[in-house]
Amino acid sequence: MDSLQMSAFAFQYELTPEKVEKSMALLDSNQMWGAYVDDTLAAKMTILDLQTWIQGKAFDMGGIAGVVTWPEYRRGGLVAKLLSHGLRVMREKGQTVSFLHPFQFSFYRKYGWETYAEYKSYEISVKQLPKLGPQPGRIVRSGHDIKLLNGIYEAYASRYNGTLIRNEAWWQNRIFGNTQGTVAVYYDAENQPAGYVYYQVKDNILKVHELVYLHHGACLALWRFLADHDSMLDKLVMNAPANDKLPFLLDNPRIKQEIVPYFMARIVDVASFLTKYPFASGAEWSLQLEVNDEYAEWNNGWFLLQVDESGTARVAPIASASPELPAASCTIQTLAAMMTGHQRPSFLMDIGRLTGTTEVCESLERLIPVRQTYLPLPDFF
């Protein structure tokens, strides 16, 4: 109960009996950590056991949430101790990467997290909605058919870096538990489910919670469906991946849009993460990589990275670099930005966040596949 009261105070919401009951049902004491001063809970955080897609592969991920300190105990280093302890816990669990939503990016950057996901926010007046003719296939309201929706979602989400792997409990408690609305599924001309939209119409505003499609035809059909709500709307609001091309498809692309920095990522265990990472195939390559990490000593130092023709890596710590092999150096924050695909090696080298030769940069550009990062807003934690 102390933890719930602390969260309600910090995040400024009313702790109603209904919220207490729901929160208590979802609490897992094995995921919660606290810092005590004189037997009083002074700070706390939660580590959610999650999985994420990176380069089409599932990675175990520790989701940091609910980091709170009572005001009278702030600036005393308690959060730093919790995060340091959390890194060890996640490493022991095999969670090689961690995500969090920061209250302040610069605060968590100090501890090794770095921006990995942004989203594009749209506000579209009813007159600017796409004008599309009849589309092949059909749209069916599905209700909360989690098995059906998750099959579509996984095919979509695995195309991005940083999306979550959802289980049934996540769908029930997070996706549908925190929002209300209607789900409509698109079946293509072959009668295959190829997309869905989860949305709500209220006060003449259509809010798209999630729009998922597996091909362009599904995208057009779902947009036609949304545009057919025009008689009830003043505007539509939604969020999309940062590289979304909707404005290019509109007759009038001058819609309100904003790129919003969203989530941060941290590599918990460099050696284990790089060993599991699916590099591009095609050629053998070796690199000596120096990583600077103040809060996880097992990451701080030199590593020998060897990638074979299949893109499989072997990684081992080494005492120092050899002049006979190529070498690069970066912080743990920069490594997270690069390996999640949020920033490319060439850009990081241009701004001085990654050091090495031009040849090293070109090799990293080839070995790290280009893939957009994304985390849908319903997955917020």
Q: Within the largest sheet, what's the order of strands?
A: 1-2-3-4-11-5-10-9-8-7-6
CATH architecture of the largest domain: 3-Layer(aba) Sandwich
Shape: globular
Radius of gyration: 23 Å
| CATH homology group of the largest domain | Gcn5-related N-acetyltransferase (GNAT)
CATH class of the largest domain: Alpha Beta
Mean pLDDT: 95
Instruction: Tell me the number of structural domains.
Output: 3
Q: Whole-Å distance between the termini? A: 19 Å
Q: What portion of residues belong to β-strands?
A: 25-35%
Q: Uncertain runs with pLDDT below 50, 5 residues or more? A: none
Task: Write down how many β-strands occur, each being a DSSP E stretch of 2 or more residues.
Answer: 16
What structural class do you assign from the helix and strand content? Answer: alpha+beta
Quaternary structure: single chain
Descriptive report:
The structure is a single chain. The chain is of the alpha+beta class. It contains twelve helices and 16 strands. A hairpin with a 5-residue loop joins strand 7 and strand 8. The longest helix is centred in the N-terminal third of the chain and has 16 residues. Pfam families: Acetyltransf_17, Acetyltransf_9, SCP2_2.
